[in-house]
Amino acid sequence: MKTSIQIGKVMGIPIKIHISFLLVLVLFPVIFANDAVFGFADVASTSLRYALALTLTILLFSCVLLHELGHSWVAMKYGIGIRSITLILLGGIAAMEEVPRDPRAEMRISIAGPLVSLTIGVLCYLAYLGLGIYDIVQISAISHISRFLWSIAYINIILFAFNLIPAFPMDGGRVLRAWYAGRMPYLQATRKAVNIGKMFAIVMGVLGLFASIWLILIAFFIYIGASEEKKYAEVSVTLEGISVRDLMTSEIAYVQDNLSISELLRLMFEKKHLGYPVVDQFTGKIVGIVTFTDIRSVPMSEHGNVLVREVMANNVSFIPEDADAMDALKMMSVENVGQLLVQDKGSITGIVSRTDLTRSIEVLGYRER
Ligand SMILES: [Zn+2]
C-alpha cells in the first residue's frame, strides 16, 4: 500500500507527506485555535481563529521541512543522495541513500538540521521583539503577526533542543556517535552512543511516571530507536564489502504455476532449495515466487489439489548482481518480500533470500568476535 504522497520537489528532492500527516492537518489547527499561549483562543471570530490556526500549522511544518532540508543540503555536499523527505505525524524524515561512515560528515549533517531550527527560532524571536514596539497601538493584524512570530520562535527552539537530546533516533544521538567515531572504531562508537541513549530513555521514563505520560511515550520511542540503530550498525558493518553475488544461489529451478503442492514438495526434497521463481505455464513469464513458508499453511490432505499459483507470492523484486548485500536487505524490508531474483545484464542469474542474508550475518558476526 502506498502510505505517502508526493507534494513537490525542492533541490531535486521529492517532498512527500505520510498519511499520518493528514491527522496533523486536523489536530493541530484545533489545538492552536483553542490554545491561549501558542494559539488564537482569544480571537473572537471562529472562522478567523481556525484560519489563523491552520496557517500556523502549515508554517510550523514548513519549518520542519527546512530542518530536513538543512540535513539534506549538507549530506548532498558530501555526495550522499537524498531519496525523499517525508513529513510524518511528529516531524520529518530525510531518507539518505547511506548512513555516512565518516565522523566529520555525520557530525556536520546531523548538526545542520538543529542549526536551521535554531536560526529560524532566533530570527522570529528578534522579529517578534521588533514588532512589539508597534503593538502598543493594538492593531489586530500586527498582533496576529506577532503571535505567529512568537509561536514559531518558541516551537523552533523546542525543536532545536529536543533534537539535540544525545540519543538515537534524534540528531543528538548521531552527533554523539560521530564524536565517539572520531576516537574509536565505528561499531564501538555506535554501541557507546546507543548505551547513553538508552540510559537517557530510562531516566526520562522514570521522570515521566511522576510528570507526564508524554514523557514515557517519548522515552519508549527513544529506547526502541536506540536498539534499532545498534542493530542497523552491526548488520551494515558486518555486511560491508559483500555483494549479492557472494550470497546468492545461482542454480535456479523454475516451477510452473499449475504445479501441485505435492509435486513442489517432491522438487524441494530433490533440489534442497527453499525458494523457486514461478513461471506462467503458457507464456513462460515469471509471475511469482514460492517458498516453503507459503506451503506450510496448506493442510496435508490438500497437497494434491492446491496449485502453486494459489499460494505463491505475486510480487517479484529484482536486484542487480553487483548490489551490496545491505541493499538487498533494505529492499526486502521495504518491499516486504523474503526473496529477490538476481539480475545481471538483463538475465536472471540467481536468487537470494532473507535466510541467506541472516545466516551470513550470524556467521560473519561470529567470526568478527
Ligand atoms: Zn534533524
Bound ligands: zinc ion
Strand tally, please?
Answer: 10
Structural class: alpha/beta
Order of helices and strands: EEHHEEHHHHHHEHEEHHEHEEH
Q: Helix fraction? A: 55-70%
Major sheet: arrangement of strands: 1-2-3-4
In the predicted model, the low-confidence regions spanning at least 5 consecutive residues are none
| CATH level-3 fold name of the domain at 244-368 | CBS-domain
Coarse shape: elongated
Radius of gyration from the alpha-carbon trace, in angstroms: 26 Å
Q: What is the averaged pLDDT score?
A: 85
User: What CATH architecture of the domain at 244-368 would you give?
Assistant: Roll
Count of helix runs: 13
Tell me the distance between the termini: 40 Å
The percentage of residues in β strands lies in 5-15%
Characterize the biggest β-sheet. 4 strands, mixed
* Overall CATH class of the domain at 244-368: Alpha Beta
Oligomer: single chain
CATH H-tier superfamily of the domain at 244-368: CBS-domain
Describe this entry's structure for a reader:
Helices cover 58% and strands 15% of the residues. A hairpin with a 2-residue loop joins β3 and β4. The chain contains 13 helices and ten strands. It has helices at residues 20-34, 46-77, 103-132, 140-163, 171-181, 186-210, 213-238, 244-247, 261-271, 292-296, 308-311, 325-335, 354-368, and strands at residues 4-10, 13-18, 82-88, 91-96, 255-256, 275-279, 286-291, 318-320, 339-344, 347-353. The two termini are 40 Å apart. With 369 residues, the chain is of the alpha/beta class. It has a four-stranded mixed β-sheet. Strands 5-6-7 form a three-stranded mixed β-sheet. The protein has a domain at 244-368: CBS-domain, CATH 3.10.580. The mean pLDDT is 85.
